[in-house]
Structures
1.
Amino acid sequence: MPTTLTAQVDAAIGGKTAVNLPEGKNLVGTFSQPCVVLADVEPLATLDERDFRSGLAEVAKYGLTLDLELLESLESDPAPVLRRDPAALEALVARCVAAKARTVADDERDTGSRLFLNYGHTLGHALERLDSFAGRTHGEAIAIGMVFAARLAEARGLAVMGLAARTARLLSSLGLEVDGPLPPADEVLAAFRMDKKFHDGVRFVLLRDVGDPVVTDDVSADELRAAMREMGARA
């Protein structure tokens, strides 16, 4: 029975159960599918503003990667969601759950399309670890991670120009910070190597355009440093 927006739209769906270690995020865990998930939007009215907006980062992730109708709705009029209108929240949660459930049904163990759900999470998890899981919230960290990924995709010539600006506008409209600051680049690179999906290289989900994600393992340290400098990281 998830009672936060982050849990209702994301964490409670998919069967992943894990714990954080000082070395990294979600490093010990397993897959255990629940019999049922009951998501009642009424408790969302009791969340403080920071926790609620943190959950909106995961909502934005679905819009940017998988659900263009959701993205269009968020970009055109986020006001009903921001004021926590129950009908708007029920529709929002149902849409995100459906998107994740479809993805998990196709790839329960994270070997293919489920990896797209990690958009923004490579940097996001590194920031959480460097904050000792006591600084930025998960949503705040992945919001910065999504902007970083968009900048990286543009710098590689993979993404259409304007993706980073569009991503920043969306997240800012939902009340999320998008500019960092980032820790020193060496610390971030070391944290990347502790990510549970690190396999002989740093794995990123990048977008060619909204709704068009790809997974890449060949991002160089120089590319990462350049993107981090753009977002205010020290060398």
2.
Amino acid sequence: MSSLYPSLQQSISNISKGKGNKGQSLFFFARVNDILLSVNTNTKDFFKDGGGWAGLGSIKFTPTGTTPDTGKPTKLIAKPLFNNISKYPILNELVLILSAPSYGLNEDPQAKTFYYLTTVGIWNSVHHNAFPDISTYKGGNLDFGNTFIEKENIHSLLPEEGDVILEGRWGNSIRFSSTTK
């Protein structure tokens, strides 16, 4: 029985073979350089460039596999894809980016903007998954942002069969589970 919708793997395969989407990738990975959480941001004019209050949660990013220009801050901005569940990345975490329609569709039917999904679980840690770019990392403490402080005693819940678990970065969690032994 075949699916009504093409699989993600099939779509990626078609793109790599030059079929569909004009050879552009559906998704790519990027490193978070800044995040818009208030008027006070790490880089000048990010609040305005990110869309003001409507841009809260937006990130500045550098695609992985590119050589960062350390003299200039990145101008690439992505917004959170989902507006009903928020999981904001911290600096140096990797996120999955995609290009999708933007609010400019009425003027330009092809208008697109970048959106990010979630962080890549490189360390499979609920606390953080930061991964610095070794070519620009100068040793010492890793920059996680203005207020995030790494803690070594944050652990994920041990899952049980069929669990649905929602975990925060600081050890807080909600588990939906059965009570069978």
3.
Amino acid sequence: MNKEEFISSGLLELYATGIASPEEVQMVEEYLARFPELKKDLNEIEISLESYAQANAIQPSSSVKEKVFSRVFPEVAKEENEITPVVPFRKKTTFPPFYKLMAAASFILLIGSVVLNYSYYEKYNDAKDQLGIAQQKIEQQGKSNLAMSNDLSIMTNKYALPVVLNGTPNAPDALAKIFWMKNTGQVYVDPTNLPRVPDGKQYQLWAIVDGKPEDAGMITTSKGTYHIQKMKSFGKVEAFAITLEKTGGSPTPTMSEMIVSAKM
């Protein structure tokens, strides 16, 4: 791992408290030799742990100290019991100062706090993701409602002349509807009941004017969502038809691919 990953691994903290395994100690010392600037981080950690331990330390009674040391350092306690003191003052032992025990306990609490914070962070991210999904659904619903409102306004327009296009032998169950505005010549198509479009194909609307087919526009059926769509305008029309063409349309209708048609 690189220097940043090593710093975030927590090995320096374990090393500072003296509870790192021999393998971890060896790794820390290798990184300290490779990156001398890490010694400054180690020094800051040691100072922080010592300051915290001293600030929160409670002076235990001698009996409590002896019980703690006998549990943590049984060899030292055994040696002390076997030595008969010959001077009135206590001999200084070689076990770590008591504050280091407090520092180790503080470090364990710190790790627990980090785990708890990470758990809350994960829950926050999950809630944030759920909120994003809900907002997307609301936005999609809003677009759907707007499209339905537009459809309704066209169908109920007093100038709209509805024309039903019935299926041909190519698609006997197919159905489409045209709304031709008598006052403006605007043309709208409702492709809701047309069959699903195969890949590479697209529906194209044709208007029969003076006996000739004229391109009235391509019908959008992307993502399987069909809504009333505005097409090209015509002042007069004899009939309408919809054919299945290659994506992008054709200059002339493919009669063998006619899906629906109707006369005005």
4.
Amino acid sequence: MDSVDDRDFQKLLRSVGGSDVGFYFVAVNTDLNPDEFNTEEIYNKQQLRSRIEVLASASGGRVVFPKKPDEVVKLYEQLAHDLGTSYSLGYVPTNVARDGTYRKIEVRLRDRSLRLRQSRKAIRLGRCVHDF
């Protein structure tokens, strides 16, 4: 079943998008890094990868895909580094009507040596509609 039509997944996605928790995944045995290639399972692996990517994006987290088992530790170290060197940005709308409309927020970095590596997507009816 496609994730857009999966009510349980859409409920989970709304919960993730409304939380203050970033979801980080080290994904193994997906269509990008299969243990073995099986054409009958490729669709299911694509669906699984897609859902993991949507959850990570909605939460401001990230997904990494190790190709070999010895890459797992390095990828965990990268995620730990990212989490240890991150900043949070908050926003309080001035619209007192609280009408549920979204505002687009753009972040620009003055120091070009820095990189914006995380963003969070706003969730409305299970679809990502704006980048924050």
